[in-house]
Amino acid sequence: MSGTEQAWAALDGDPALLAHVTTSGPGGLLPARLPVMELAGSAVAVCSLAAAELTARRTARPVPRVRVDNGAVATAFTSERHLRIDGRAPVSFAPLSRFWRTADGWVRTHANYPHHRARLLGTVGLSADTPDPAAVDVVAASFAGRRGDEIEETVFAAGGLAVAARTPGQWAADPRGAAVAGTPLVRRERLDDAPVRRTAPLTGEPSLPLAGVRVLDLTRVIAGPVATRTLALLGADVLRIDAPQLPESPDAHADTGFGKRSVDLDLSAPSGLAVLDALLAAADVVVIGYRPGAVDRLGPSPEYLTARRPGLVIGRLSAWGHGPWALRRGFDSLVQVATGIASVEATAGAGRPPGALPAQALDHGTGYLLAAAVLRALTEQHEEGGSRLVTLSLARTASWLLDELPVGREAGSGTSAYDPGRWLTETDSPLGRLRHALPPVGFDGSPADWSRPPGPLGSDTAAWLAAD
Q: Under DSSP, is residue 69 helix (H, G, I), strand (E, B) or coil?
């Protein structure tokens, strides 16, 4: 079974609709030992097909043809690497976000955010204002004499992020890996018997499947914002909500903020919750990217949301999914290390650190799968009613990549025919002139680009746009 077939089945899509999907473009992209291009192309294919399906339902027309271009997919999955802001390339990883040698192997840390960096440094007796070069030397010396699992737990206890490198076999035998492997790629739940909520039929051109749909975006970093960026592309009014006490990377937002508006709202305060409740009264979709423990602290639970807005579609994602690490922080790079992906992708040679995928494919792939799941849930809600909850995790997507996907589209070590410039464009924005990747989601009648560029984080009004 192809990756597209697997993902469409996980979404409970009609198998007959797969005949509408065609794939083209260069081969050998995103080369790796694991089937990364199969994951990428499949995630985009089912997202495009779910959008085409909803378009057909809202227009009472046949399902449009879906077109998956490998070049567009590979470029979109590395969008943060192609981004330029007034000619400047963003910094992807801070100096303390890296692999470190330990007494028994390797550990990877993530310290892109100042508070995570400070907590990591605190575990080795350094202050937050320690310069990076000196900090690197001290951390390297400290970690070299300690076991990876001890470092992992010490840094976690301090509120930082460190993960010991494992092989796929070690992860599969571990209760943390076993718990994730036993869950579906996309968990789909009907939460109540709320009545059908029909959006107005689409007339005229273009017929965007999410026209008139309002989305509250409570996500950050890459995976969740990729999902909501895709919903914005398809016509939704997407309002991103950030907690003012949590720093976010302006560069990451410059890549994933297309099509959206952005507000700061403290949901831990009664005044912030009151504003959220007012927005919720007219919302159709809420997408949550905080881990379960943080949702309780910084945002509302699915139960809170559906009690106030029956018939809501909720998309939820986390790093580790179900199991002992469900409440832990995590990022794509750390999930790769824990699950054994980094071990598989390592370059042979004594003393070499584990490797990495050619893209942050767990983030991007989970993002497009989440968008697809929301689209399918809207189609089902349109027909059957009920509040809907769809749940995904980076760790479960990693299991899909490691254990289930067939080797396919990325055969070979790369291709000289691939020029990403074909799938890049430039746009003026309040953040400066942006060079960015074009959207890979494609079907007959789909938009070629987003309706608006990103603006500064928190610069918009906490209100929905007026209906056309």
A: strand
